[in-house]
Please model this.
Amino acid sequence: MNPFVYNGLPARVVFGHGTLEQLVDELTALNCSRALVLATPHQRDQAQAILDRLGDLGVGIFCEAAMHTPVEVTEQAMKVVGELDVDCTVALGGGSTIGLGKAIALRTDLPQIAIPTTYAGSEMTPIIGETEKGLKKTQRTLKVLPEVVIYDVDLTLTLPAAMSGTSGLNAIAHAVEALYARDQNPVVSLMAEAGIEALARSLPVIARNPADAQARSDALYGAWLCGACLGSVGMSLHHKLCHTLGGSFDLPHAETHTIVLPHAVAYNESAAPEAMQRIARALGTQSASQGLFDLARAVGAPQGLCDLGMKEADVSRAAEIALGNPYWNPRTIEGPAIHDLIRRAWKGERPRVG
Ligand code: NAD
Model:
């Protein structure tokens, strides 16, 4: 066994079908009685239903959560927190809503209950990225880690098939990079392999039948494991590229992850053979990168960054930005190869190993 350091993160996780029933008990156990329910405008009705369920323990809803946690939205939410004398937040939704709960916790230390309804995994991480004047700043602090996470499989049934596929591949990306992280450790690697396996098995089933309860349960279980990987160890090339592409060209989060992942894995394939073997085993394929590309096809995800509206002329600029920001990766970052990687991802070609 190689030497390692393992840091357990302090989060309470409640998982199952119908676990929303336990919200009042969880809130009471936190000694809270003035909850503000957070959501996006799209999930307003669900937020209202949660407020109704909370009865006297809920004081209001705030349904303006948006992608990349804009500081202006957080400031509006902070006014509501003050006016209603809120003592905890309940974030119902994907990474955008959970990000808002984290932004409030960063400023107030208020306890958070997260109820994830996508597979993005933010609920399991002490990471927050906030956007101000077009710039996204990311930091890691335990202040933003939700105290309680309620995974209710039933709430994921409404996640549309297309979003389920890309959100699931976004989750897989966390586990893939955990397997070749510089600070990898055996516990997180076990979670990573099991997370990839659960999602790779369930996502194609969900693409055909979004109401399949067993597949939904497997996918959410996988998403939890993958989110825990993101929260525990450092990420490499793939996450840096997606950060660059999302931030500089305003590309959608989950779709960008889905398209770039097979190419980033192909780039690293020769430098991390043991990780690649584990990824391929979890996918049930011979090759990690080709298996991820085929999985993205099986769930009907967009194939190229061109399909997301990125211009061909931006390929070189994306490569320049990625190269101008040095970071650790199992394989040295080489200019021409990174340019070729982004060009292939832009076109939607099969990833090339080597
Ligand atoms: P999202 O939260 O933006 O959700 C996308 C849309 O889907 C929203 O309109 C939402 O209301 C809707 N939706 C969510 N669940 C639904 C459901 N079950 N049924 C119907 N509609 C539903 O998308 P996301 O991909 O979950 O999150 C992306 C954001 O999260 C990005 O800003 C990303 O940077 C952030 N993120 C942060 C971390 C972290 O650790 N800090 C990790 C992953 C993602």
Q: What stands out?
A: Residues 40, 42-43, 67-68, 93-97, 99, 117-118, 120-122, 125, 127-129, 155-156, 158-159, 167, 230, 253-254 surround nicotinamide-adenine-dinucleotide (CB under 6 Å). Residues 12-156 form a domain with the Rossmann fold fold (CATH 3.40.50.1970).
